[in-house]
Specification:
- The complex is a heterodimer of chains A (766) and B (301).
- With 766 residues, chain A is mainly beta.
- Chain A contains five helices and 49 strands.
- In chain A, the strands form ten sheets. Chain A has a 22-stranded antiparallel β-barrel. Chain A has a five-stranded mixed sheet with strand order 10-15-16-13-14. In chain A, strands 2, 5, 8 and 9 form a four-stranded mixed sheet that branches.
- In chain A, strand 27 and strand 28 form a beta hairpin.
- The longest helix of chain A is centred in the first third of the chain and has 22 residues.
- The termini of chain B are far apart.
- The relative contact order of chain B is 0.16.
- The chains are: A mainly beta (766), B mainly beta (301).
- At the A-B interface, strand 42 and strand 43 of A face helix 1, strand 1, strand 2, strand 5 and strand 6 of B.
Chain lengths: 766, 301
């Protein structure tokens, strides 16, 4: 049972919490010194993440760390004296300087690293072993841009979503639809952040693309569960993307052309050395491209615009402004034939459309008064969805939220304490009309607020433990919760153990009609009063390097979901926002192996995942003689295998990705008839009745297995003005007829993309 | 050699997987051919039943005819009656783009079953598959007004139904007039839900005259205490059905009863065909009672 703190006035709790933390900071400051700062590329002035920062005294290592987001580092708990500061990073010349530390000093030291001239490609392979799929740490994976680029994509240049599909435990419906299911969670249970902004539906309708092309990626963390107290409001996973910043020195850009999507990316200084911009625009062009390679239409349109301005406001502060706008449209089913009005051979399928808008500002500062790193966030996020005709949609949904928050990290030697405050206002509206539909109109406002505190302690020679707590208040539901979060990593010999345990709540749910094998249209709605869904995560993992360049990892996980709400089950063929309570259980295990050699690398993963929902609905007792039914929901893919091979030979970059997934459950109908409500003297000449689906039990059928192979080969030519990259590839290389969408109402089957040859070109100008 | 074996294993696995089933059958067809809905009425000469073919597509047919023939007989040995198909057109819209009609098939026959009889209706497809329903016609019941009840000025008018029936609904039609209007109003008020005496064997309904007067004021726009309102006529219609017409779970909630297996009396099919009739009973207006209920006394002619 989650602990409730309803009796504690939130304002009092907040004031006491902040006061205690600030007083504690002053005490810490009085006892020891701290060195903080940012590490940047000396040429572009872009922040560098993962840089080793070491403080030595007479060649003896006193303390060290690696830069985190924004290139920030902090070395605390320092005794007075003279030190040598060494800052090193693969591909850069090591920086060394001498520091004189006064008692209780709080110094800001910024470092600009000069790029090295020699080719360090081979070193890169071995230098970043803390990242990659095989190095998962209690559900967290740090994504390298190089790994994203290694996944074959029909467009030149990778995309984050392509990499995510190679991870075990992440289920997609295939190459269209734009929905990700992480370790048994549903798409609405994923929290996707871009520069701190919530992005509700970031994955494009064509599954190779998302709002995150590789060109904009900076730091990416994927938490498949067990995330820290900093994150909240989502039951399943966190995908935290921080876009890189543009160069503050030189103007550069790239143009990418392919039969699927083409784009332009430009970056450069606004104020040289201080402020930069990065713009990425991408637009689908299937009508002019891939459509010509396949017999059927590819009715998909999508695009995204990302803009980021970043400024080094002072030596101790940075400001960034980000904007993301995306649009998607496509028909996920085929045109309906048969059963059409006289004289009309086929009827167009419903088109689903959605638009994201996210805009935010992030300010990072190292205040002189306190030995802390402070981050201030303000953002707006909006998602609009439609289903039906363009000018007369049958169903519409909209969610808009304003977020604000502050995150503060204190440093005291091996102890770091992060805390934060947050508040959100959310508006949700929906209009559901159309065939078989009782029109429903909803509009509601919600608020969320809370705080978190998460100490992280690195025990010398022992584990790194972060034990946090998040107080999440849902005033609209009259509920508040205390969510404990614990994460631990312990390096033992050549391997690393990791574990996580956490409790999370989420008050808004995304409702889809999951009676179809794949249903894309989602309406956001608040759960019933005082009923807030919660999930308890538990993860245990082990990873190790078994040979030079060979990493293996295994991770087991379980989730217990309660107060979960799923759309009601009904034989009426309608979309409904009526919800029924449910519980869920998820358990599974991931096996990962990565082999890295100087000229090639292989990543092989296997994921076992079992999801079980227990739904309760008043009618079930009458229908099935039991108050609840247990079933596998439509995203329960039990087995999943990914094999990713990439390498270089004969001057060509080769990449191949083979995927296998066992069949997904779906609800099989036994037929269709009509229903007339016989509750009185019904005149059957006048009463039209409703259409009805004769189901057996929910999700009693299983779809065929899914497997495919995608391959690309590319070559890059360096030129004085930049580079030219040409790519050729095959989508679905052996033309497997994979099912994407099965409309059990119209019996319309839609398959994923057939074999399609692709060509692409990228011109980069430095 | 080990590397070769690994490659061979991988290739074999890939080939095996390539040969995996690609087809999916979204329908596990049920063998029942039809769903039927209707009412066998012992007070009318025409009986009608709506017939839905159980089919493999959700969208309704855009053709008028269906593959079905309907017949009936009174059990155990009545003559067989063939029913005719009336294709009824209903409006239908596809996504707001293609207005059209769809068809419903209502089969009907000219006969009147007797009270207390059992009627068998059979719907047969050309391949011989049939759905069948046996409908028990209720007994004729006696309905009488009992003396009005007043607490103290809240007047209700009890009606007793004696016989093995169930009441599924009642409607009271008031004819009222006022000096402020040239024509009388005829107002039909539904009294939903189970009423006192709901059940088989005997039913006692109550016409809440005083409570209905408030609704009558609302409909007519007359003002209590300001406008005179006179009761001219009162008739109660009651839908009386065979006691077997009873919803599982005890209430007529379409969200509950929509499950095809829950509320059906059709063999080898779905749906529900019941039997009942509307009983009409006129109250000889007693102006003294009406005045106590709140109506005004009409002026003497």
């Amino acid at each position: 049972m989650p602990m409730s703190v309803r009796r504690l006035p939130p304002t009092l709790l907040l004031i006491g919490f902040v006061a205690a933390v600030l007083v504690g900071s002053r005490d810490v400051r009085a006892q020891s010194a701290i060195v903080r700062g940012f590490v940047t590329d000396a040429e572009s002035r872009e922040p560098l993440v993962g840089v080793n920062v070491a403080l030595r005294r007479d060649t003896v290592l006193v303390t060290g760390t690696a830069t985190r987001a924004d290139g920030f580092f902090a070395l605390s708990g320092l005794e007075p004296g003279s030190y040598r500061l060494e800052v090193s990073f693969v591909g850069y010349t090591t920086s060394m300087s001498t520091l004189r530390i006064e008692p209780g000093a709080s110094r800001v030291v910024n470092i600009a690293l000069n790029p090295a001239l020699e080719d360090l490609e081979e070193l890169l392979v071995e230098a970043e072993r803390s990242a990659g799929a095989a190095q998962a740490r209690a559900g967290r994976i740090t994504v390298r841009t190089a790994d994203v680029l290694a996944v074959p994509s029909p467009a030149v240049g990778g995309d984050l979503v392509g990499y995510l599909t190679t991870l075990p435990g992440i289920v997609t419906m295939g190459d269209r639809g734009g929905q990700l299911f992480v370790r048994g969670g549903e798409p609405w249970q994923n929290l996707v952040l871009l520069d701190g902004m919530w992005v509700y539906q970031p994955f494009h309708v064509l599954g190779f693309f998302s709002s995150f092309p590789a060109e904009i990626l900076g730091r990416v963390h994927v938490y498949a569960g067990g995330f820290g107290a900093r994150y909240g409001g989502s039951l399943s996973s966190v995908i935290d993307v921080e876009a890189r910043t543009g160069s503050k020195r030189d103007l550069s850009g790239a143009v990418t052309l392919s039969p699927f999507a083409s784009g332009v990316q430009v970056e450069g200084p606004i104020q040289e050395g201080r402020t930069s911009f990065l713009v990425s625009i991408r637009e689908s062009n299937l009508g002019q491209g891939a459509d010509h390679f396949v017999p059927e239409d590819l009715p998909y349109r999508f695009g995204d615009l990302f803009l980021k301005a970043h400024s080094l406001v002072s030596d101790a502060s940075q400001l960034s402004v980000s904007l993301l706008s995306t649009h998607d449209a496509g028909t996920v089913s085929e045109a309906r034939v048969g059963r059409t009005p006289p004289g009309i051979e086929s009827l167009p399928p419903d088109e689903v459309r959605w638009r994201n808008l996210a805009a935010g500002m992030r300010y990072v500062a190292l205040p002189g008064a306190f030995p802390v790193l402070a981050e201030f966030l303000v953002s707006l996020s909006r998602l609009e969805t439609e289903l039906g005709a363009r000018n007369d949609p049958a169903r519409t949904g909209r969610i808009q939220a304003y977020h604000s928050g502050v995150n503060v990290t204190h440093f005291a030697g091996p102890l770091e304490v992060e805390w934060g405050l947050f508040a959100r206002t959310i508006q949700m509206a929906s209009e559901l009309t159309g065939q078989f539909q009782v029109p429903t109109f909803d509009n509601e406002w919600l608020t969320e607020a809370g705080l978190f505190l998460e100490p992280r302690y690195s025990i010398p020679g022992g584990p790194v433990v972060s034990a946090g707590v998040r107080v999440q208040a849902y005033p609209s539901r009259s509920r508040s919760f205390v969510e404990p979060r614990v994460r631990a990593e312990w390096r033992v010999g050549p391997g690393t153990w990791s574990a996580a345990l956490g409790l999370v709540h989420q008050e808004i749910v995304g409702l889809s009609d999951r009676r179809d094998a794949a249903s894309v249209f989602t309406v956001w709605a608040a759960v019933p009063y005082r009923r807030v869904p919660r999930s308890l995560h538990a993860i245990l993992g082990y990873s190790r390097t078994i040979a030079r360049g060979v990493d293996v990892g295994v991770e087991a996980y379980a989730k217990d979901l309660d107060e979960l709400f799923v759309p009601e089950w009904t034989p009426f063929p309608r979309f409904t926002t009526r919800m029924q309570p449910a519980r869920g259980r998820v358990h599974g295990a991931d096996l990962r192996m990565e082999v890295r050699r100087p000229s090639w690398q292989v990543s092989a993963t296997y994921g076992y995942n079992a999801v079980e929902y227990v739904a309760m609905q008043e009618s079930l007792e009458l229908w099935y003689g039991t108050p609840s039914i247990t079933y596998r929901p439509g995203h329960d893919r039990r087995h999943q295998v990914n094999l990713l091979v990439s390498g270089r030979a004969l001057g060509l970059d080769l990449s191949a990705h083979w995927q296998f997934g066992s069949g997904l459950p779906f609800s099989r109908a036994q037929g269709f008839d009509g229903y007339v409500h016989m509750d009185g003297p019904v005149d059957v000449f006048e009463e039209m009745g409703s259409r009805r689906v004769i189901y057996d039990r929910p999700f009693d059928g299983v779809l065929p297995t899914y497997h495919r192979l995608d391959v690309t080969v590319a070559r890059t030519w360096g030129r004085p003005w930049g580079s030219l990259k040409a790519q050729a590839g095959l989508v679905n290389a052996y033309d497997r007829r994979n099912l994407f969408y099965l409309d059990t109402f119209t019996l319309t089957r839609s398959d994923q993309l057939p074999l399609i040859p692709t060509l692409g070109l990228q011109i980069a100008i430095d | 050699m080990p590397r070769f074996r690994a490659l061979l294993l991988l290739a074999t696995t890939a080939l095996a997987l390539c040969a995996c089933e690609e087809q999916v059958n979204p329908i596990d067809p049920i063998s029942r051919p039809f769903s039927l809905y209707g009412i066998v009425d012992p007070t009318t000469d025409r009986q009608a039943v709506r017939v839905f073919p159980i089919e493999g597509a959700l969208f309704p047919a855009f053709e008028a005819a269906i593959d079905a023939s309907v017949s009936s007989r009174v059990l155990p040995s009545g003559p067989e009656v063939a029913w005719e198909d009336s294709s009824v057109a209903y409006p239908w819209y596809y996504g707001g783009q293609v207005p059209d009609t769809t068809w419903g098939n209502v089969f009907h026959a000219e006969f009147r079953p007797g009270f207390g009889e059992t009627v068998e209706i059979v719907v047969v497809r050309s391949d011989g598959r049939a759905s069948r329903v046996e409908v028990e016609v209720p007994e004729r019941v006696e309905s009488v007004f009992e003396p009005p009840v007043a607490f103290p000025a809240n007047v209700s008018l009890p009606v007793r139904y004696t016989g093995d029936v169930r009441v599924l609904g009642s409607w009271v039609t008031y004819t009222v007039s006022s000096p402020e209007a040239t024509e009388p109003w005829i107002i039909r008020l539904e009294h939903p839900g189970p009423m006192p005496g709901y059940g088989s064997g005997s039913a006692l309904l109550s016409v809440p005259m005083s409570a209905d007067l408030g609704r009558i004021y609302s409909v007519t726009g007359l003002r209590p205490g300001v406008s005179d309102i006179f009761l001219q006529d009162l008739e109660i219609e009651t839908f009386l059905v065979h006691p077997s017409w009873h919803p599982p779970g005890g209430r007529f909630d379409p969200e509950l009863l929509v499950d095809p297996f829950v509320f059906t009396n059709v063999e080898n099919g779905f749906g529900y065909v019941g039997s009942g009739y509307v009983d009409r009973l006129r109250w000889p207006v007693d102006q003294d009672v009406a005045v106590v209920a709140g109506f005004d006394r009409p002026p003497r002619p």
